[in-house]
Here is the input.
Amino acid sequence: SQKIEQNSEALNIQEGKTATLTCNYTNYSPAYLQWYRQDPGRGPVFLLLIRENEKEKRKERLKVTFDTTLKQSLFHITASQPADSATYLCALERSSNTGKLIFGQGTTLQVKP
Amino acid sequence: GAGVSQSPSNKVTEKGKDVELRCDPISGHTALYWYRQSLGQGLEFLIYFQGNSAPDKSGLPSDRFSAERTGGSVSTLTIQRTQQEDSAVYLCASSPQAAATDTQYFGPGTRLTVL
Here is the structure.
């Protein structure tokens, strides 16, 4: 069955450093991959979508890569700030173009001042 | 404009009772999704609607779970004879269309606790 794995251990980094989060998937070849941010007690908020034919996507301090050979996406936050502290979820389209998503369990990022 | 809203924000119920959870999507969004998030877990897809129809109910955990959507807008998720394992945060999302490239906008969720 389709499976997504994110590092369940929290990532602690110092303010100003680059945070890198990993999303690995198996038994699937998604056409799209999405990243969301979730703060405690809130619903997820969409950040970026990357297509299978895009190697890299950027938005302000965020960068996402998508390696369909390795079946892996990396999510980078450069010049990290304490306000970036949150849980970050990756999600894959579950079946063809219905919007149904499979989510990873998320990685919690803590940026210390 | 207004985002996705859900009610109630918190619901505590006794085992065996029925509960109804409500979702008001963003106006004009034709697609609506229900997910469940248990403590420390990722989001689990339950069901989605395109308009008022539910093409895929495969994520519903059991026949105690049902959902409907009326007027292409409000949706209700009903859980009958609740069990303790139903305790979770139930999240609703809407998007303009049921397409992989459409952003899903999430509500704040309903935290359900079954005693």
